[in-house]
Amino acid sequence: MTPIPTPGQTVGPFFHYALPYDGDNELVPPAAAGAVRLHGTVRDGAGEPVPDAVLELWQADAAGEVVQQAGSLHRDGWTFTGFGRSATDAEGRYSFTTLRPGVVPGASAPFFAITVLARGLLHRLFTRAYLPGASDAFLDGLDPDRRTTVLTVADESGFRFDVRLQGEDETVFLDFGDE
Amino acid sequence: MADSMTGLEPQDVIDQEMRDISASYAAGSAVETQPRRDYAPYRSSRLRHPTKDLQQADPEGIELWAPVFGARDVGELESDLTIQRGGEPVGERMVVTGRVLDGEGRPVRHQLVEIWQANAGGRYIHQRDQHPAALDPHFTGMGRCLTDADGTYRFTTIKPGPYPWKNHHNAWRPAHIHFSLFGTDFTQRLVTQMYFPGDPLFDRDPIYQSIVDPRARDRLVATYDHDLTQHEWATGYRWDIVLTGSHRTPLEQDAAEEAHA
């Protein structure tokens, strides 16, 4: 018999002393060659910043290789593990220092895979943050009005990607057929 | 009517809303296995649930893999929450263990499990927790471990207490431990809460009740296990966790591990 998945629950308001850790949002040191910043603000349905959210980032390296390397929790400053975590601050902002992802063989366009957790959000959300100007079958299948919500915007330090949990400009969140 | 002192709605209002949703679910035929993100009795969800349908997507590329965690990431002692602060924490010492499986029933091996919880008095060490219960100098309430080759995790900790929150007047959360889990695919990521059998607060808690199917929410309740309980040392609870199915085609390496499991 196929087992039935365990239900999710909200991350709640008190995750800050457990989930964040030193260096969690620095997949590479800020001074590393090719380092870019992926950052933005998480907002709710009223447009207010969400100060108690946490985003997780999972991505390929610059060559498009899915690295399978330990060391995300205790980084040595050299090994790229592809995983990071960033809790939002009092203004709802998160930030990662990372590498521009390459195209993974078999996939069509490079993107940052993102998980969103927050107090008030009863089950995690998944989304994709594509590089500016990206195009693939998934993007083409979206309502044109909503496509921009999964495209990053280039800025002086890298890429900006704002997350909107609810509302007119609500981010496109994904269902992988498991829900 | 809101409570005159706190300005918060009474429990009765929340209870009625939860009963209405429950009756409406029972009258339908669809089975829901996950919490509703749109669950108004949990007031914080009102502005934080997506209002548009989630976009169906086939996982591709990076999403078919999960991050790897190893011994370098997690120290062996991090799974014992009773030895982190140089003395014995107050409360009921307990062992919590179980297996992490994927949607096909295969063990999720060597993956990270993170937990966090209140102390025996229902207080978190978090600065924003201003519930006037004592902090325990010997308890941080956070731990980590990796599942073993059989997908088993194991923690030694203290039974957390229930605690008040401000969703409504006289709102109390059932005792629970927060769990964070990874599978073999990115798409299997799960954050949830484990509860204890027979908690009198279950019916009054909108976070627990946001899983509208009674059988589905029962899956969050651990089982007391006397065989796990240790003489003059600790009580034992068992809780297995099932992540969603893996989308990735198993590699030869996976098959080899399977054969040796």
TrEMBL record, chain A:
Residues 36-104 form the Intradiol ring-cleavage dioxygenases domain. It is an enzyme of class 1 (oxidoreductase). InterPro entries: Intradiol_dOase_C, Intradiol_dOase_core, Intradiol_RC_Dioxygenase, Protocat_dOase_a. Coiled coil: none annotated. GO terms for molecular function: protocatechuate 3,4-dioxygenase activity. The keyword Oxidoreductase applies. Its EC number is 1.13.11.3. Keywords: Dioxygenase, Oxidoreductase. It holds the Pfam family Dioxygenase_C. Belongs to the intradiol ring-cleavage dioxygenase family. This is Protocatechuate 3,4-dioxygenase subunit alpha. It comes from Nocardioides cavernae.
TrEMBL record, chain B:
One of its GO terms (molecular function) is protocatechuate 3,4-dioxygenase activity. Keywords: Dioxygenase, Oxidoreductase. Its EC number is 1.13.11.3. Residues 96-124 form the Intradiol ring-cleavage dioxygenases domain. Residues 25-53 are annotated as: Disordered. Belongs to the intradiol ring-cleavage dioxygenase family. This is Protocatechuate 3,4-dioxygenase subunit beta. It comes from Nocardioides cavernae. The gene is pcaH.
